[in-house]
Amino acid sequence: MHIHQFYDKPLAHASYAIISNGNMAVVDPARDPQPYYDYASEHGAKIKLVIETHPHADFVSSHLQIHQETGATILTSELTGADYPHQGFDDEQEAVMGSITFRAINTPGHSPDSISVQAIDNDSDERAVFTGDTLFVGDVGRPDLREKAGKMRAKRESLARDMYRTLREKFLPMDDETLVYPAHGAGSLCGKNMSSDTYSTIGREKEENWALQEMKEDSFVNELLHEQPFIPKYFGYDVDMNKSGARPYSGSVESVKRLGADEEIPADALVVDTRDEAIFKQGHHPNAINIMISDGDKFETWLGSVISPEETFYLVSSSDKEREAAIGRGAKIGYELLMEGARVIEGSADSAKADSLDMADFKSNPEHYTIVDIRNKSEVNDGKLFAKALAIPLHELRDRSGEVPSDKPVVVHCAGGYRSAAGYSILESEMKGTQVYDLSDRVKDFKKD
What is the reported pTM? Predict the structure, then answer.
């Protein structure tokens, strides 16, 4: 059995290709199907199956596009109520591809419609299980998304109890040697304590995963529901898009209007400016939010956390390459459909400019400023850097900007500087007439060893 993992680091998303006898199956594919097409071509294989373990909340899947372009059969649980052509795949149902038998296992817990899929190589007896967002390395999927994400509702406590039973009835009986391939690794918002490892074995998880240890059901539920990460604004939007099936990736990306240098962005438009914060602060559109894009950042997550799927916006980038990257990465969460246009601005824009914070005065007289801590609640709970800071997480800042007093200059900080650029730009736009500063990476001067 030949298994290859594709890993998208910004979204901490893992998808898979399984090849047997010239046939290929794809599990939980990302928005752009081209890497799977290329992999199939390299190995002389034809894509026969696409398996969706559930309607994902944190990324848009290409399952429908792959079906349309290759004729592959989509397998997913009938519980999803999928609106795209598919074959129901639930408890004990099987699909054979080459020497491999895929067997569906209903594994509710993260969502009521989650399945895991066993793959058994009938020639070698090698076994693997693709666990979607149910079982991760070192953790399990969060059970609270369906209260807010998507049209199919389910209560978090009920799903947490489903997860308790799923783990004990479905996973504990599996052979220790069974390979575990989840849909996410560390950094995903679909769980809270995932390992940086991206695959495991059932035996290792039995020994090391807290959720598979012996404990009472109520204790498990309390631990699972405790301090789950925030839910980005885009999660429900993606669940519904995945339930229906997304538009083809390339055509949708190409439909975003590329603006010329002489085409102005309307003065009242919402703008996402992906340029470096130093360039942004030299000049930018008055309604711009600075969500920087670079290798290894969380651009998709913060784009979909700060901007609601009910809004439309323009993109501003510093180069053609950066603009195309921003459009493509926005499309991973379906946000290309919200883009009114995308423009390249080389250098600074002749508009709003940022003033520099007087660090000597700030250090000597912090009481002269309103300090806004935009870290997540769990980070703040671990300790404030400024005792009297007003804590408002970045993903809530646009909605709660009215809570920030305007009688003093405002200083925004996060943990390292990336998020504070976005936070600063939000408050600068929302709090006209109030001086707003970004502490940026200088926050490190205030961290305790």
Answer: 0.94
Q: How far apart are the C-alpha atoms of 1 and 164, rounded to whole Å?
A: 31
d(CA 84, CA 400): 39
Beta carbons within 8 Å of 226's beta carbon, 6+ residues apart: none
| Six token digits for residue 95 | 């699909």
The token pair at 107 is 């594994």
Residue 177's nearest CA partner among 157, 154, 200 is 200
Instruction: Please report, in angstroms and rounded to a whole number, the separation of the first and last CA atoms in the chain.
Output: 49
Contact 288, 271 (CB under 8 A): yes
Could you read off the pLDDT of 113-131 as tens digits, one per residue?
Answer: 999 999 999 999 999 999 9
E strand or H helix at 397, and its extent? Answer: helix 394-400
- 328 Cβ contact list (under 8 Å, min separation 6): 32, 253
Q: Which residues of the chain fall below pLDDT 50?
A: none
Tell me the C-alpha distance between 284 and 286, whole Å: 6
How far is the C-alpha of 344 from the C-alpha of 360, rounded, in Å?
A: 36
CB 372 within 8 A of CB 389: yes
Q: Alpha-carbon distance 86 to 154, whole Å?
A: 23
Spatial CB neighbours of 399, under 8 Å, sequence gap ≥ 6: none
Sheet holding 2-8, edge to edge: 2-8, 13-20, 23-27, 46-51, 73-76, 87-88
Q: Which amino acid is at 5?
A: Q
The dihedral through the CA atoms of 373, 379, 384, 385 has a sign that is negative
Which residues, other chains included, contact 304 with Cβ-Cβ below 8 Å and sequence gap of 6+?
Answer: 232, 233, 234, 235, 237, 333, 335
- Residues ≥6 apart with Cβ < 8 Å to 63: 29, 50, 52, 74, 76, 84, 242, 245
The DSSP code sequence of 249-304 is HHHHHHTSPEEPTTPPPPTT--EEE-S-HHHHHHSB-TTEEE----TT--HHHHHH
Q: Quick one: pLDDT at residue 348? A: 64
DSSP 96: E
Structure tokens at 387: 């005792």
Q: How far is CA 237 from CA 31, 125, 339, in A?
A: 14, 40, 15
